[in-house]
Structure formats: C-alpha cells, structure tokens
Amino acid sequence: MYSETSYCYPENNATCHKFVRRTEILILLYLSAGILIGVTVFGNLFVIITVSHFRQLHTPTNLFVLSLAVADFLYGFILPFQFIDVIENCWYFGDAFCPYFQTYFYFVLFASVLNLVSISFDRYFAVCNPFLYSSYVTNSVAGSCIIFIWLLAFLYTYTFLFHTGGLLLTDWCVGMCRFAHYDDWLMIHYTLTFLLPMLLIICLYSVIFVTARRHVKAINCMMKETKSASTAKTLGIVVIAFIVLCSPFFVFILVQMLFTINSENLGQVRLALTYLSTLNCCIDPIMYALFYPWFRKSLKMMVTLEIFKSSSLMTIHPSIFQPAESEHRVTGGSAGANPSQHRAQGRNQSRAGCQPTAALMTNIF
C-alpha cells in the first residue's frame, strides 16, 4: 500500500510521519473522496431546499428530516480536512484550527445521531399512537424538539472535549491533530453517542413495523402487498445502513482500547472508517431519490430552474408528495390547524375503518 515513509514537513525533523502512497492509489482515494463529499453536500442541500420550499412538505416529520439533512450538510464541509488528514496522515491546517475542527466534528456527528433518534420517535408515535400524535405533534412542537437537539449536542460536545480531562494532541509531532481521553470516558462517550442511540433506533423501528403489520391484519385492510414490502425494505435500509456503517467505528474503539495496533494498520482502519461514516451521511438523499417521487420531481425542478418561478410553490400536486400527503391525512390537515380540529378529525378517522393505518403504512418512514 505504501511505497515509502516520509514526513509531513520534510524541512522539520520534528514532524509526523507521512504515508506516501502510490500515485494510482492516491488518485483513486481522492477521487472517491471527492465523489462522497459532493453527494453529501449537494444531496443534502437538495433535501434542505425541497423541504423548505414546498409548503406540502411542511410537516413535523419532514422538519426532522430537514434537521438531519442540515447536520449531514454541515458535516460535508469538514470532510476535505478529514480526508486529507487520514489519507496523508498529516494535519496541514495549523494548531490553532485543530480545536475548532475537533469541536465541529464531534458536534455535527452527535447532532446527526440525535436527529436519527428523533425521526424514530416521531414515526413511533405516529404509528403506535396516531390520534395522540395528530393532536399534539405540530410543527411548533417539532421545531422546539429540533432546537433542543442542537443545543444538547453542542453542550455535550463542549463539556466532553474541554471539561472531562481530554487532551487535544498537537505537540507530539508537527502535523498532528488528535483528541485523546481516558478509556473510561471514551467508553461512556461512545455508549451515550452511539451504542444507546443505535439500540433505541432498532427497538423503535421494530415496534413500528410489528405494530403496523398487526393493525393491517386486525382490520383486514385491502392493502397491496407491494406497499408492505416497500415499507419493510425502507425500514431495512434505514436500520441496516446505520448499523453497518456506524458499528465498525465503535468496534474499532473497543479493539483499540484492548489491544496495541501497529500505527500503519491504525491509519488504514481510520481511512476505511472515514469512508464508511461519510457513506452514512450521503445515503439519505439517495434513499429519497430511490423511494419517493416528490424528491425526484423537486430535483428535476431545481435542475431545470423551475423552482425559481413564483408558481413553483404549488407546481407539484400534493399527490406527488406521497409520504407527506399520507401523513397529512393522519395528522388531520395542515400544520396550522388547531388541536381541537385535529381531535375532531381523529374521531372521524376512527370511524373510517382502515384508512389511518393504510396511511401510516404508506408513511412509515
């Protein structure tokens, strides 16, 4: 993999070791990194513009989706620094920038995880308590939850990095930017920011799927099997992608605590985990493009610049926004409706037989 070992700054004997790769491998690594960065930034930007621009998508669920897209979009801006660091094994951006980079990195990643958890809770209450959900979960409630999520992510990150005894390593050698901590604290950190959220998401989505399937069977709805299969497929992608792309990092931390790893092998693993974590941040827009007509339609409008026309706000018929439209039926109308209207419509839905559950199965994610 490596043709030789050099230094980050050849003129300085105190600099860190640099991994010099063969030219073809270096080109492949930077090309793939550029593609991942582009998909992460522009894919999530398309999601942000779509949800913000079209009124049909202004629902509590889509506000959480918007918040997740913002977190992944912001993560895309530090990816160039991160990829250069893991590919070259050198930090070229100065000691002063290192603490800001580390704070930004941990903050955005934790915010992304919290948004995934919030989406899971949103779908859980929508499926398992649809009438309570339609009465109390409004855009303002979702907005308050999102503000709390971002504040919590920032306060936790700041406390963990600067008030628990951790160290930013920049002086072991010139060209290093690493965060080091006691093993006990690292175990607590990764349990709180990854392991517990992962288990919670798996449990919630499992209950969502089982409950929705049970409702459909209990009331004998005339639901196409393809919808059920599509729902299961979407849930599987959400859960499996999160587990497959994020679990290796947690396992790596455990292995690193228990065993001594050669520095060259450590660099290889860090590189692979960086690519995996980036895939986790860019996979959501790809899922929307594959499964939801509203995203493909809005993407076409952005590419053709139709979105800049004043009439574009109502250009897409609500039926195109199948997830949002389904949730619109379940939640009882627009975000501006008051709780009494929601409750009245909820009672009407309860007399309508299987319609609420059918809508929920369509909009399970």
From TrEMBL:
<feature type="transmembrane region" description="Helical">
    <location>
        <begin position="104"/>
        <end position="125"/>
    </location>
</feature>
<dbReference type="InterPro" id="IPR050569">
    <property type="entry name" value="TAAR"/>
</dbReference>
<keyword id="KW-0675">Receptor</keyword>
<protein>
    <recommendedName>
        <fullName>G-protein coupled receptors family 1 profile domain-containing protein</fullName>
    </recommendedName>
</protein>
<keyword id="KW-0807">Transducer</keyword>
<dbReference type="Pfam" id="PF00001">
    <property type="entry name" value="7tm_1"/>
</dbReference>
<feature type="transmembrane region" description="Helical">
    <location>
        <begin position="188"/>
        <end position="213"/>
    </location>
</feature>
<feature type="transmembrane region" description="Helical">
    <location>
        <begin position="137"/>
        <end position="158"/>
    </location>
</feature>
<comment type="similarity">
    <text>Belongs to the G-protein coupled receptor 1 family.</text>
</comment>
<feature type="compositionally biased region" description="Polar residues">
    <location>
        <begin position="337"/>
        <end position="352"/>
    </location>
</feature>
<feature type="transmembrane region" description="Helical">
    <location>
        <begin position="234"/>
        <end position="259"/>
    </location>
</feature>
<keyword id="KW-0812">Transmembrane</keyword>
<dbReference type="InterPro" id="IPR017452">
    <property type="entry name" value="GPCR_Rhodpsn_7TM"/>
</dbReference>
<dbReference type="GO" id="GO:0001594">
    <property type="term" value="F:trace-amine receptor activity"/>
</dbReference>
<dbReference type="InterPro" id="IPR000276">
    <property type="entry name" value="GPCR_Rhodpsn"/>
</dbReference>
<keyword id="KW-1133">Transmembrane helix</keyword>
<feature type="transmembrane region" description="Helical">
    <location>
        <begin position="27"/>
        <end position="51"/>
    </location>
</feature>
<feature type="transmembrane region" description="Helical">
    <location>
        <begin position="63"/>
        <end position="84"/>
    </location>
</feature>
<keyword id="KW-1003">Cell membrane</keyword>
<dbReference type="GO" id="GO:0005886">
    <property type="term" value="C:plasma membrane"/>
</dbReference>
<feature type="transmembrane region" description="Helical">
    <location>
        <begin position="271"/>
        <end position="292"/>
    </location>
</feature>
<feature type="region of interest" description="Disordered">
    <location>
        <begin position="329"/>
        <end position="352"/>
    </location>
</feature>
<keyword id="KW-0297">G-protein coupled receptor</keyword>
<feature type="domain" description="G-protein coupled receptors family 1 profile">
    <location>
        <begin position="43"/>
        <end position="288"/>
    </location>
</feature>
<keyword id="KW-0472">Membrane</keyword>
